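Ticket #401: bound-state structure for zinc ion.
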Amino acid sequence: MVHSYSAAQQKKLIVFDTTLRDGEQSPGCSLNLEEKVVVAKQLSLLGVDVLEAGFPICSIGDFEAVKRIATEVAPSMEGREKIGKPMIIAGLARAVPADIKRCAEALEPAPLKRIHIVLATSDIHLQHKLKISRDECVKRAVESIQLAKTLCDDIEFSPEDAGRSDEEFLSFILGKCIEAGATTINVPDTVGYNTPEEYGRRVKYLIDRTPGSDKVVWSTHCHNDLGLATANTLSGIQNGARQVEVTINGIGERAGNTALEETVMAIHTHPTYYPVFHTINTKQLCSSSRLVSSLTGSAVQSNKAIVGHNAFLHESGIHQDGILKNKSTYEIITPETVGANEVSLILGKHSGRNAFRQRCKELGFASISDQALQKAFTDFKALCDRKKSVNDSDILAILAC
Ligand code: KIV
Ligand code: ZN
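RESOLUTION: The complex was predicted; output attached.
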């Protein structure tokens, strides 16, 4: 396998963020409508290519959130000059007509939209969950893609539990999905079972064997049950995937999904090692992380790669000595690259509204409305009167109210 690619050989990596769908499925991570809109705006600034905004049939709240994001956030080009287009807004649907129609309805206002259809393909799921044969599975997949295609050009198909599905059957059904009009084929390791070699080999097998595979974008979707989600995703890229499905801070079902920040920075720090380049605004990574953490209430572990509190701290004497002499001795990424150093102003009771707005921006609330800012500023001043020092956690708590 080649491990050095020239710029001309590299393809753009499509970053599909599912923080608001798979991420929001984490225990205790649910977000209200306003919070979802705030996160979606930040993800647009971050440079996400495809935003999975929700699962419209699953609740009125999800439907409304997808629709609002499709209306208010989808057209935005702010900070996306390098990318040259707004985010594609995706909604999830099971392979049933009601889901697909509801999804299309919610996505309708978005300039660029995608229906994402999921149907399990592993024998375990077919026998025990869906109680259908492989033939019925193929029929449902094809018919649902054909229906979705009448409502939207951009269709993604996800064979749920692909990581444990029979490869020959997987290749057969995916060939039929491509023939029916799917434009992206995802390879979900739904239960986080695969190892990097296994997952990469599976992606390669499918790309090599599936009829029409050159007409679609292949995508990774890895869960972190064995702590291998990022490694599996990178292995998928080395083996032909050109889209990655990820979440901020790696939040998601059980042990979570692949972390966006880890995948992007692995590629960023190895600019010729992967057959892809990314267009993420890396300086927005830490503020995106803080925003998602504060709104979901899901704390980021302090030693978390890229966005953890300790990610750029040096404690031991030997390391500190090295850093003082030359940062490259112990830093493979500068804090500035990921926006980890953005604490520019110390805030207290004498601070003004502009400084407060700037801090909100640094904490990930770049798109806060004037009205919400005014309320937060008033609460901040009141807190300054009661507390000697007001820190970022206090401000985040105010902003999350
Ligand atoms: O893990 C999974 O299989 C999913 C699908 C909807 C892609 O989240
Ligand atoms: Zn998933």
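RESOLUTION NOTES: The first strand starts at residue 11 and ends at 12.
TICKET STATUS: resolved
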